[in-house]
Amino acid sequence: RATATMGEAPELSPQAPLAVLSKVELRVSCRHLLDRDTLNKSDPCVLLLMQSQGQWMEVDRSEVIKSNLNPVFAKIFTVDYYFEEVQKLRFEVYDSHGHAGVGTHDDDDFLGGMECTVGQIVAQKRVTKPLFLKYGKFAGKSTITVISEEISGNNGYVELAFRAKKLDDKDLFSKSDPFLEIYRIDDDRSEQLVYRTEVVKNNLSPIWEPFKVSLNSLCSCEEKRKLRCVVWDYDSRGKHDFIGEFFTTFEEMQKAMGENKVQWDCMNPKYKIKKRNYKNSGVVVLLDLKIHRVYSFLDYIMGGCQIHFTVAIDFTASNGDPRNSCSLHYINPYQPNEYLKALVAVGEICQDYDSDKKFSALGFGARIPPKYEVSHDFAINFNPDNDECEGIQGVVESYQSCLPKIQLYGPTNVAPIISKVARVAADEERTKEASQYFILLILTDGVVTDMADTREAIVRASYLPMSIIIVGVGNADFTDMQILDGDDGVLRSPRGEPVLRDIVQFVPFRDFKNASPTALAKCVLAEVPKQVVEYYSYKAFPPRCPQPDTPDSNLGSPQ
């Protein structure tokens, strides 16, 4: 389950037993690298690999820094961190000769590697280790340093657009080739590189491409934290010429929102001392700043979003006569059947997120009174105007009382119930608020009969605030049900339309027969927080009542 991802992604709730997922940012620098080039210094690049099932897989790679034996890489590696797992990482440094030459494991280009675990980096926050060549040989005095930061819960990202005007000309026969670096100054006065722009060739008034950085990276989510910005004239041999610098804060940068712009004098301290009429070495302008908040599952829950739980139970004849002890619906006074075990395990978690503790309980595949016609979406309390039961215990009681009153029949059609819940979710969507999200738990003993209609219904539901959990009860062959779970590919409707989001989780109950009830709940509910955040992010719905930031952060909630 060890994974690594690039870019931003929503966090999952720390509420047990839902999967706990942290994201960690890793910054890399090296010292005293081997010089593999005859004419110039090495052009280093770092590859990050993670071990998965005994194999090293490349996760990401840094930029190439020209002619530098002591590089500080601007690339920030982002990895998912699981406390309960040993996640092995390997950093490999190469002398790059273009992208085709990176990672080819040519001995001449390999500058050294280092192995560690995510846990070691997280625990120590800063890890410095020697680089090794093949066969355990030291790569001279080469070292690699990895610094970790956990992305905080109130993290978002900021989009910045800079330009400069009338920069000093550092070149004799042409104009300067400027680039901008932004450093965050930490509490111990050390500087962390946040971002390095591209080089704009032969231009004293460059306009750099807009870029995005996380608020955590930029200022540790503290708007008054000091930032140092440095403008350099690029040199292909790595000896960049200093043009000037200025200091600012994220608080000051925010004045550039909207139509406003903020500018700073780019100062060279040596010139300021030596030159009597020195004004500046140019001006740097922040043209635009946009703040984007990345909300977590917990943000939505604490903002008042309710999780509405609906259970749908299979009452087809293949379950067996409920009066027979071999039936999957047999009520044993000493031990709950598999339907009840699955219902209680999942429902007890969901009820914590529903303030009224009322759950819709539906049945399908049975002949029901009074006319004993087959129904595929009936209320098991036989109240068509109100299918809700009081708490999980109310659902259990309704289930037990309805069994003697119905005739198990068929077929196993679930599309009608998915569509029924989807209609309620569609009404909720029209409120344009993150107020209610729907989870449909389907308990069935076999493969659905109406597969085409079910696929169509799921595709429609993927656009709504809704997730579907299917638990296969009994010993049937559920192979064909795996198609509904998008883990192995994108689910499509019969017409070829793909789901917008992966909203289905299918699990055979027999896989958890000898495990604790919490194991089943953890498995089937693990993806729900991510699905909730994906839906509201897609719709751009913020939490209804965003919570104030934690006391250790001074950064106000971005809009």
From TrEMBL:
GO terms for biological process: cellular response to calcium ion. It comes from the Eukaryota. Residues 6-131, 138-265 form the C2 domain. GO terms for cellular component: plasma membrane. Pfam families: C2, Copine. Transmembrane segments: none annotated. InterPro entries: C2_dom, C2_domain_sf, C2B_Copine, Copine, Copine_C, VWF_A, vWFA_dom_sf. SUPFAM superfamilies: C2 domain (Calcium/lipid-binding domain, CaLB), vWA-like. Keywords: Repeat. PROSITE patterns: C2, VWFA. SMART domains: C2 (SM00239), VWA (SM00327). The keyword Magnesium does not apply. Residues 308-528 form the VWFA domain. GO terms for molecular function: calcium-dependent phospholipid binding. Belongs to the copine family. This is CPNE7 protein. It comes from Corythaixoides concolor (Grey go-away-bird). The gene is Cpne7.
